Each structure stands twice: as C-alpha cells, then as structure tokens.
Hints:
By secondary structure, the protein is mainly alpha-helical.
Amino acid sequence: IGGGARNNLLNAFTANALGVPVIAGPPEATATGNVLLQAMAAGLLPDLAAARALVRDSIDATLFYPEEREQWERAGKLFSSHLIM
Length: 85
C-alpha cells in the first residue's frame, strides 16, 4: 500500500524473501482511507467491513507469489551468518 505498491521488483522481492504472497494495493491508500473514514462518519458507509468491501470491489490489487524459495533461503542464511549479534 502506498507508493511502494508501484514498485513491482520490491513487491516480488518481498514475497520471495518472506515466502508469503504480497498484495500490492492502491498507491493512494492514505487518501482512500481518509475518504472512507469521512464516508463512515457521515453515515454513508455503515462500518469498516463495508469500507473494506468497497475498496476490494473498486480498486485493483496485484498479487505477487513467492518464487525461487531455495535461492532466497540460502541468501537469507548467508546474510544472517554475517550479522554481528
């Protein structure tokens, strides 16, 4: 969410490094959240669940799946072995 959502390489690396899917949402997340909270305060949306459903149905998200797990795990172990604790 936010400007980082535009960086496909960062999102792919994050999914790979963590081994979990990453959902890159709208780059305008702060503004969208502000508008949704104002709509809730004005009674235009009944609750947070409705606001989340509106976002889910209105804004495209990109899903990045982990790839090359063995390579990323080896790199993580190598990195960890060089940390000073």
